[in-house]
Each structure stands twice: as C-alpha cells, then as structure tokens.
Amino acid sequence: MRILRSADYRRMKWKNGGGETVEIAVFPAHATLDNFAWRISMATVASDGSFSIFDDCDRTLSILSGKGMTLAGAGGAGVHLTTAGAPYAFPADAATTATLTDGRVTDLNVMSRRTIMSHSMTRMTVDGEASVQTTGGTIALFCHDGRLAATRGGTVVSLAAQDCLIVDDMAGQSLNLSGKASFFTIRFNEIPQ
C-alpha cells in the first residue's frame, strides 16, 4: 500500500494553459501528460471554458467543492455536476466546455488511456466500518474529507482529507475501512491485448 499525502502532490499547468492542476498520482511513475496509462488529479476551475483534450483517453469527473458546473459536448446537451452527484464519465478526447453555476469549483479528475487501461470511480462514505471488495488491478482511495483508516493483511494506514492510498494486486482481497469520511474508490484495470 502506498500513501500519497496532499502536501506532496505536484502542481502543474493545465495542458491547455488555462489553469493549474494538482497531480495526485500517475502511472507509470513520472509519466507525462502525453504517455500516462492512468492519472488522478484535482483542479480548481475559476471561469467558464474548454477542457484540455487528451487523445485516446477516457475521463471521469466529480465535484469536490463549489456550486457545480455544467459540461457540454459537441452534441449540445449539458450535464450538470454538483457535490452531491455521482461522478460523470466522458471521452477526454471529445471537445467539452464547462459553465460554472455560481463561482469557482474544485474537481477530482481521473483519466485512463483507453487502449491499455479502463477505470471507474465511485463516491462513498463511511461512518464506523466498511469494506471495499476487489477483483484485481489497482485501486485508489481518495479521502475527500474526514479521516479514514484502511487495513490490509494486518497493516493499517490512516488518511486525512485529500490524502490518497494506492493498492496494487488486490485480487480476491478486501480492504477494511474505519472512520468517518467521504471518499472516492477508483479502480484501474488493464485492457487485455
């Protein structure tokens, strides 16, 4: 299990230069925006505008704070995202624009390169104890707020708000959780070649 602390995240410019992103985790390690297999990041969106284009990638977005925003693609119909809504998946290589509802938002962004990797993201809460079942691949737990303890094979790790836990090779095992927190479970699986 790898613990990633929020104070250690890398800050960098958006690919389109329109803002700043906080890179939480990337695979393989030290991959660039052009060659990652998967990537988890946060961004503050302060104005309406277009999303960066990432060729051959899929993206899932969830609102962490703020009043929300509406995403619109080439099809025209918009999808409104809020802190209470489920994460929204869409192609990262499709032209997409964001319109803020009322002021800036912070979002959690997960991407994977669809030719080699798939991903899913689920918003969850724990108040006491819970467990996360796995079927293999890599799993990431991002603690949105509160405090969360995760136990695997007798090893216990603690996550504070905006910390992330990465666990590889979890096939057939469960990750036991305790605490009071809202968090996201992110799963990555290789695409058979």
UniProtKB/TrEMBL annotation:
Coiled coil start-end: none
Stored Pfam families: HutD
Spans through the membrane: none
Recorded superkingdom: Bacteria
CDD domains, sorted: cupin_HutD_N
Protein name: HutD family protein
Record organism: Gluconacetobacter johannae
